[in-house]
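To start, one record:
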Amino acid sequence: MNRFSCLIFACNNHQHRYTLEVKLGLKENWKQFALLVLVNMLVGGMVGLERTIVPLVGTEEFKIASDIVVFSFIIAFGVVKALTNLISGVLADKYTRKRVLILGWLFGLPVPFLLAWGPGWNWILLANVLLGVSQGLAWSMTVNMKIDLAGPRKRGLAMGLNEAAGYGAMGLTALLTGYLAVHYGLRPAPFYIGIFYAIAGLLLSLLVIHDTRKFAQLEAAGVQPVPGAETFHKPALGWVFRETTFRNKNLFAVSQAGLINNLNDGMSWGVFPLLFTSAGVGLEGIGWIKAVYPVVWGLGQIVTGPLADRFGRKPLIVYGMFVQAAGHLVIGLELFEPLTAGLLGSVLLGLGTAMVYPALLAAVSDTAHPSWRASSLGVYRFWRDIGYAAGALMAGIVAAYLGLVWAVHLAGLATLVSGIIVWVQMKEAGMKM
């Protein structure tokens, strides 16, 4: 079935009753879904503010020589975002999706101001702590709310559209900040657009977004729990953490692939601006390299999301990891002149990530029962976004001893191994109908 309906009876004082028809499906909920797509474009744009500029702010404005110190803003962002992801589902179940989304934007409001005018590197780190909380809450809620609305059959498409909006906006913002930096300097001009993103996102979330928890409750009423979970109505977070991290083979395969996928992103976030600057690529060229990766990643999911619904999650994940490994190979072996290698490698990284991203989210949703799906998605996104910190930390250590290009080689090897693990461990769970 692609449509469920029910009657929701609600009244605070129980003296009046009314009926409200609730239906699952993209067609049935397209207006609210479209608004959530717009909100996630703004969420993604907030991260795009940092993709081209912030590593160069560290090396050129604050004269930081250590790669690990420069990459510390990514580590701070990744750890905080991962931890926030972990509790976002619990908060959503307790306080509603909409309230958590609004809270995410409130944490995001100071970020562009700190990036634009922070007088020292510690202020940049503070901005990334707040950005990590904001992203962990706001992006998690756009994911959960779209899954709630879409229903089981179009889950891959829903995730493709969600991630396309977020990462497409991230890439375009990275390109725009590079352009502004060339013409107006590294700070503050490139971060003005972030002020608009934060205010617009908060207002949209307050005024036009509706909570979607009732849609998840409707789906849960028509789906049997997975074996071993029958006694749980809403399992404790510890149970969900264990189930998602290692007890369920599918969820383990998905979680480790998500971690390695974002390890690639965390590595490239810090390494690429410095690597290509040292190779003689100008700031606009670096802006293009940094933009191509998330733009291809984002827009590609419009295609790969439906493909995951049609052909299954596993093929998209396995081959997507292999394509990313090929992207690292193109950049790391320096077979072309630096700008060409950067652009071609970024296209492959973006294409591989586009194949993987919606399939991973959909695979978690296939396996986790709706009663604990939000928490399971939070655990998966915890491990996935720890990858930002792991990639930045790995890159900083490897770069210090072997050079920046070896961080690219090591990330490529880890990606290849991760794809093999999914190939061996994962089985198609089957989309719940």
